[in-house]
Amino acid sequence: MIFAEIIYGLAGPDGLVRYVGRTYQPKRRFRGHHSQRGRVGDWVRQHRGQVRMVVLEDLGGEDKRCCHGHLSRERFWIQTLTLAGADLLNQVHLPSR
Q1: Average pLDDT over residues 50-56
Q2: Residue range 59-88: average pLDDT?
Q3: Is 43 helix (H, G, I), strand (E, B) or coil?
Q4: Alpha-carbon distance 20 to 77, whole Å?
Q5: Domain 2-83: which topology?
C-alpha cells in the first residue's frame, strides 16, 4: 500500500514551530496531539484553536515499511530548527551520531 508521508511542524499563535513530527495521516495525527499526554499535548491544549500544522516537507508516497530515510529527514528538521534557535518541545532535539 502506498502512503504520502510528511514531515510537519506544530506552530503556535506566534507562527513559530514548537514541535516536529512525521505522519502518513496528518488530520488524524493533529487531532491526536490534542489528547496527547506530556509537554506537547499540554502546549496544544494551552493554545486551544491557535495551533496549526504546517508541512515542512512532503516525502511523497513510499512503502510504509521503508522509513529509515524519512526518520533521518525528521531528524534533519529537528536539528535545523534547533540550530536556528527554535524552542522545540520534541523529547530529542538533535540526532545521535
Answers
A1: 97
A2: 79
A3: helix
A4: 7
A5: GIY-YIG endonuclease (3.40.1440)
